[in-house]
Fold this sequence. Notes:
By secondary structure, the protein is an alpha+beta fold.
Amino acid sequence: MAFEYRSTIGQDSHRFVDRLNRPATAEELARPLLLGGFEIPSAVGLSGNSDADVILHALTNAVSGLTGINILGKISDQMCLEEGITDSRAYLKRALQDMGDWQITHVSVTIEGKRPHLSAWIDPMRKSIAQIIGIEPRDVGITATTGEGLTDFGRGDGLQVFCILTARRPDNE
Length: 173
């Protein structure tokens, strides 16, 4: 059987709640840091309407690049602000519904930020992402960098994520 392959890219970024352009509320300061559906212990959370899971947002954008249906924006705003759904896994699952006969074969994620140090949490994040999208953890790659402090992310103001997704579907020709 022959397959058609496509690769897409997604990006997202969020500021840490302790680096807002205003004083953070107690509720914001209590927000956990979620990355790839996994909670990073003892880390400052990210600011956003949802849980601000920057990895799942970048992955959702990558899926949207494949399907042509943008989830983050109007659809996620409706889910979050009108229906009260703040779990970014729900946005990703919504995006996955539009994939038709496309099958994700690999995901590569790179995280830019000075903090927190993520090496101990790479494997749990890989497992979490794999479980959400239905692939094996070996098919999820995650790297993290400080970017040598050249951006606001590398200076500790927030996190930026790029995600490349590879998918295939049977070639019907």
